[in-house]
# Entry
Amino acid sequence: MENMQNPPQTELVELQIEGSTCYVTLNRQDKFNALNVQMISELCEIFEWTSKRSAGRNNILQDSDGQEYLRTLIISGHGKHFCAGADINMMRDAGAQSAEENRKDSERLDQLFNSLWSHPCFTIGLIQGVALGGGAGLIACCDYVVATENVKIALSEGKLGILPAVIGPYVYRRLGSACFRRLAMQASRIDSEEALRIGFVEKVVKDKEDLQDASVVILEEILSSGPSAVSLAKELTLEFDHWALDDEELRKFTLDFTSKMRGSDEGQEGLSSFLEKRPPNWKK
Ligand code: COA
# Structure
């Protein structure tokens, strides 16, 4: 098991841990947090480390040193903009290199989005300014997104003659087929009102200063849910996303899942705590 005293050492991304919440902040302000190779690698390291320290994955609230395991992850960006997308220099250079190098570069991006999408913690994005291309991909991978009023989001790749393919599955799952297809073709920026309407973000606040306050409300809500229930909700959803068998099989699968949850330590604790009129052991 990873040591709490040994988090990844990073330069372009900040990692801060407070109790069971980790704060991941993009910090390449001069390029509006455009995702270059170093930043992508640092984010991947952080997502891997924080995943291993998640309460949901370990099925326990604290490690052997009494340090809390993680239950929520907040991703945000320093400066005027949340994220100007993948670094355009990086993509041009990769495209001009050998097919193997080009693919390796895309694989790095793929790992980034997949590791945020499948992160066992509840993930919250706090965004201001723009979230373009890969920046839009990052928020599509989050479970809850709060945006400032002035936010602009775009699957802008089409304007550069490329496509939102690596981020595609996550945006598609968040918005649905028609909306993903339209935004990929249109490639122009949508405002916070449209983002809220189509489900790209969950909440809109006035200013950047209001983002933290909005996150406190949802954090409190999530900390009253069972940590394993939160993590397993993602696995359950993924099963539905991938379901290829008939409805009979689907019903069997959900019955098994329901029985497993009821019989788990967490399920027993949650059900008993309700009946005994006391808070469950995970509630802060
Ligand atoms: N990759 C690399 N560098 C980027 C970048 C990106 N995705 N986005 C911005 N930058 C750099 C600019 O080249 C510029 O660098 P410089 O200071 O060395 O010239 C710096 O960040 C500031 O950007 P600039 O365009 O001058 O600022 P602006 O306020 O006029 O516009 C943005 C800001 C983010 C709206 C604009 O830069 C933009 O549209 N970027 C492209 C975003 C995009 O299409 N991303 C999707 C990639 S798939």
